Amino acid sequence: MRIGRRYHLGIPILSVEGKLIGDESKRLWEAVTELIAVGERNIILDLSRTTWIDSAGIGVVVDCYKEVIRVGGELKLLHVLPRIKRVLDTMGFLKEVFTPLYDDESEVVASFNKPGRGGV
């Protein structure tokens, strides 16, 4: 699994490439908490290149969501592939936690109530 980082109008986007599974999924937690440590509050996870997610991966995504909420921010999902949507839905997280999902990067950036640390 690889995690890339980029910004769109000051909002950090973490791109997860490969399988978000097992112990490797902890790397996503580290990436999110690093952003929080430098003052970021709003974060986007781009899952367009995430080929699979297991229960450990979902647990890490949910933990990241809770941590971002705890510090007063929002974590949103972008480009979630159908097979990943099915897993999230089966486990009950699609409607309860990660709604809405976004397919347009500009739309998800505009959806935040306030800009990330970098400003708009």
Key features of this structure:
120 residues; alpha/beta; Transcription Regulator spoIIAA; 5 helices
Walk me through the structure.
The chain is an alpha/beta fold and about 120 residues long. It has a single domain (about 1-110), classed as STAS domain (Transcription Regulator spoIIAA). The chain contains five helices and four strands; from the N terminus they run ββαβαβααα. It has a four-stranded mixed β-sheet with strand order 1-2-3-4, sandwiched between helices. The longest helix is centred in the middle third of the chain and has 16 residues, at about 55-70. It is globular. The termini are far apart.
CATH superfamily: STAS domain
Tell me the helix content. Answer: 25-40%
Large-scale geometry: globular
Major β-sheet strand ordering: 1-2-3-4
Indicate the mean pLDDT: 91
CATH architecture: 2-Layer Sandwich
CATH topology: Transcription Regulator spoIIAA
Number of helices: 5
What portion of the residues fall into strands of 2 or more residues? 25-35%
> Which parts are unreliable, with pLDDT below 50 for 5 consecutive residues or more?
114-120
Identify the CATH class: Alpha Beta
Q: Tell me about the biggest sheet?
A: 4 strands, mixed
Order of helices and strands: EEHEHEHHH
The overall number of domains is 1
Structural class of the secondary structure composition?
Answer: alpha/beta
Q: How large, in whole angstroms, is the Cα Rg? A: 13 Å
N→C terminal distance: 30 Å
